[in-house]
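Researcher: Next sequence.
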Amino acid sequence: MSLSDADVWHAIADGYTATAMHLLQPFSRAALDGVPLGPDSRVLDVACGPGTLTELVAPHVAHVLAVDFAPAMVRACRDRLASQTQVEVREGDGQNLGLQPTFDAAFSMFGLMFFPDRAAGLRSMRGAVRPGGHVVVSSWVPVDRSPAMTHGLAMLKAAFPFLPDAPVTSAFASVDEVRAELEASGLRDVSAREVRVPVQRTAEEAWRDMAIGAAPVHRLRQSLSPEAWAEGEARAVAWLAAHHPTDPLDYVAIIGQGRV
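Model: Next structure:
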């Protein structure tokens, strides 16, 4: 399964919208804090999903164009932000936006990291931003450096022991790598930093968010019989009863940015 497949995100659009936005909002706020925007600004949100960043920035700028390649995500974003007249939501390929350089900033929050060709995605975003404007991207660190993701993977392995281990390293998952790719795209004044967000969930919320909001888990469920899924769910609930912490667990991401 590839997370660069639009069908994957189309299938989980409702669950992702219901479970992921409270997690992603703090990272979007952190990304926005690093960019000077005002009431006349035009913003591009690439791989917008249900519109987490768009919703935050729209009341403070003149226009937001939100783009996603999954039709169900486009509908979710349109439905949620229908009252925001300064928001335009469009289906499109982030690797080939074909936009003129009329935007003051372009963001891709946890989207560019899944592109088959990140360099093309960065070129496309850069080409949509006026000289002096900003390009901002984010990605997750490897699972073993994110306490919340480590916990989630352990829960899944307890539920479905046949699952493979997560890779120790992954692409676009270090500050140095993010910085290097932004510089290679031609951006100036490039910086990258780690951002940690503590999230507290009950055991029930931890399983629900994974079961209905995680694309790989949705695809796994489709591949199993109802009985096999139910057995795995029971194992997950039992594991959580013994291992779920009462304290928050940190999600860790990298936010990188540069100027055109």
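Model: The two ends are 34 Å apart (CA to CA). The beta strands are 42-46, 63-68, 87-91, 103-109, 129-140, 188-199, 249-259.
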